[in-house]
Design goal:
Layout lengths: L9 H10 L6 H12 L4 E4 L6 H12 L9 E4 L3 H14 L8 E4 L5 H9 L4 E4 L1 H9 L10 E4 L2 H6 L3 H9 L6 E6 L4 H10 L4 E4 L10 E8 L4 H11 L5 E5 L2 H13 L4 E4 L5 H12 L5 E5 L13 E4 L8 H6 L9 E8 L3 H11 L4 E2 L5 H18 L4 H15 L4 H19 L33 E7 L9 H12 L6 E6 L4 E6 L3 H8 L1 E4 L2 E7 L5 E2 L15
Parallel strand pairs: 1-6, 1-7, 2-4, 2-5, 3-4, 5-6, 8-13, 8-14, 9-11, 9-12, 10-11, 12-13
Antiparallel strand pairs: 15-17, 15-19, 15-20, 16-17, 18-19
This protein binds adenosine monophosphate.
């Protein structure tokens, strides 16, 4: 099908050509004829990345009478990011209209500037619910003349707790209006909005409900909890060309993981609610411009994130609300591209994989966590690719050529290649020295295909240290492993994966802590009270224990990608 068969006027078709859209996407093909005719309410079940902005945006522009200054269109969406993106898209669709005025209003920016823009006469207002309600309460905006309302990403808005705001807004819109609702999923709460505010809507689904794009490969990896971070690093190393998102469950975890990765030389940036708006904007800018290759984010912060060509979505932890898996993985494989959604689970979480499989109605493949050999191989291939693609600047080279030549003339071409490869490879071998197999065995009865419990090649040389602590609490004081981990983490603020081996005895216990956070543990936990009994903690004098995984050597900080 072609755009010109969808019932859009010429000036809008011209804008479509300018945008380089050659054929309509599925949602556009199905939605535009209904919305262009303009007579019915509409529900479109579609993910981001399917072209839904144009599916509602093009017909919305068509219905606006730009010679009238009043507000005729209202788009409500969950986040500031999406609000700006939609505004930009609508402006592009309206390029051949006379003086289109499309105003975004969202929280975290000056409300008086927004009021000024609205006062100038906005044909379409694109708004986040909280800010729009604020403007309505201040009587800075009136919705009496609105004829068409788009609720974009309705499920996300309800997830974010905007239900009451949306009700309050819709209650202030004229009785006679069209509502166009778009949502990736159709939970009961969205259905209720539809029932309350829409009349006999036409409902169109692109793909299945709750579905994720078919061109996403879903995989899961299983490790012990304490190896989660190391497993993540292996995935990042295994995909040197990644342009991806890592999802964490909390702001704290997001900040922590991003910090650690950054310190270890990975190109990452964090995006979460504890950052200021300016910091979030800066993070988004870096990611969008690909100055960094990986964005570590919470579900909430990444809502409405609209970046194309994301190659991987990594779930450092699965979301508490399993439905959010659909939103997370929908960030990849947009606009017909392919993508990978990689999940890290510990041995006790494997049943959650089944829940996700049920939700997305797609099997998730078990994959072993890459070992040192796999990673070195991938890194080498990536290096070769980069080398082959690197253009030669003859002029610049000429200057240095005599020196190069003098130094290398005794070596054969083959030897030069070998040395060149080794320069990179040695760094990786060194880095992965002592790295074991991080794959944890599956629970009995669950299915595993592929390699299980495979040993890494470089197991012999263990490096990195843990500090062993002594605490004068044991079984007699009701201390057990779980209680000890909880106490250490809550008292010191360290993450549980920093806690290693624990030995509980009758009246005392030993526990290991990653060397890097050990001083913190000692300073914060030297003395305390546990279930009414005072205790003291001291560094054990026995010996230092090698860490299970690998550890980068000091001074060997290597830039990745
Ligand atoms: P959306 O789902 O609206 O966020 O769109 C996802 C991406 O697909 C955006 O970058 C659009 O510019 C692009 N896009 C939308 N419709 C088409 C189309 N018909 N042909 C090519 N690209 C499109």
């Amino acid at each position: 099908m072609e755009f010109k068969e969808l019932g859009l006027p010429k000036d809008i078709l011209k804008a479509v050509v300018d945008l380089g859209f050659s054929t309509p996407s599925e949602i556009q093909e199905k939605a535009i004829p209904v919305l262009a005719a303009g007579k019915q309410d509409f529900i479109g079940l579609a993910q981001t990345g399917t072209g839904k902005t144009a599916a509602f945006g093009l017909p919305l522009i068509q219905h606006i009478e730009f010679e009238k200054p009043e507000t005729q269109g209202l788009v409500i969406c969950p986040t500031r990011e999406l609000c700006m993106q939609i505004t930009k898209d609508l402006a592009a669709f309206a390029i051949y209209q006379a003086n289109p005025n499309i105003v975004p209003v969202y929280g975290g920016a000056s409300i008086s500037d927004q009021i000024r823009l609205i006062k100038k006469g906005a044909h379409i207002v694109v708004a986040t619910p909280g800010r729009l309600l604020d403007l309505l309460n201040r009587k800075a905006i009136r919705l009496k003349t609105v004829q068409r309302i788009v609720l974009d990403e309705a499920d996300e808005m309800l997830n974010m707790g905007f239900k009451e705001d949306i009700d309050a807004i819709l209650d202030q819109t004229p009785e006679k209006k069209r509502v166009w609702l778009f949502s990736a999923t159709m939970p009961g709460a969205v259905r209720r909005i539809a029932n309350n505010y829409m009349k006999e809507p036409v409902e169109i689904t692109v793909g299945r409900k709750n579905s994720v794009a078919i061109n996403i490969e879903h995989r899961y990896y299983m490790m012990k909890e304490r190896d989660r971070y190391h497993a993540l690093k292996r995935l990042l190393d295994y995909y040197p060309d990644i342009f991806g998102l890592i999802f964490c469950r909390t702001r704290r975890e997001t900040g922590l993981i991003a910090d650690k990765l950054e310190k270890e030389g990975y190109d990452v940036v964090a995006l979460h609610g504890d950052l200021s708006q300016a910091q979030r904007d800066a993070a988004m800018k870096k990611f969008r411009e690909r100055t960094v290759k990986v964005l570590v984010a919470t579900d909430v912060a990444a809502r409405g994130l609209d970046v194309n060509d994301i190659s991987h979505v990594i779930h450092y932890n699965l979301p508490d609300e399993i439905e959010n898996y659909t939103h997370r993985s929908g960030r990849t494989a947009r606009a017909g591209k392919t993508g990978k959604s990689l999940i890290l689970v510990n041995t006790r979480e494997v049943n959650r994989i089944r829940q996700v499989e049920k939700l997305i109605e797609t099997p998730i493949e078990y994959k072993p966590i890459p070992n040192a050999e796999d990673i070195c191989e991938k890194q080498m291939y990536a290096l070769m690719d980069r080398v082959v693609k690197t253009p030669i600047d003859n002029e610049a080279i000429d200057r240095y050529w005599p020196v190069f030549y003098e130094k290398l003339k005794e070596l054969h071409a083959e030897e030069i290649i070998l040395k060149f490869i080794s320069t990179e490879l040695n760094a990786f071998l060194d880095y992965y020295k002592g790295s074991g197999d991080l794959n944890a065995a599956q629970e009995k009865g669950s299915r595993v295909k592929g390699r299980e419990k495979e040993r890494g090649r470089f197991n012999r040389n263990l490096s990195g240290t843990k500090t062993r602590f002594f605490i004068n609490l044991g079984e007699n004081q009701h201390m057990n492993k779980g209680a000890l981990v909880r106490m250490v983490c809550s008292e010191t603020g360290i993450e549980s994966y920093h806690v290693g081996r624990i030995d509980i005895h009758a009246r005392y216990s030993f526990f290991e802590i990653d060397g890097e956070v050990a001083p913190k543990v000692l300073s914060k936990l030297e003395r305390g009270v546990y279930e009414g009994k005072s205790f003291s903690v001291s560094a054990s004098q026995e010996k230092e224990y090698p860490e299970r995984g690998y550890k980068r050597k000091p001074g060997k900080k290597k830039k990745h990608y």
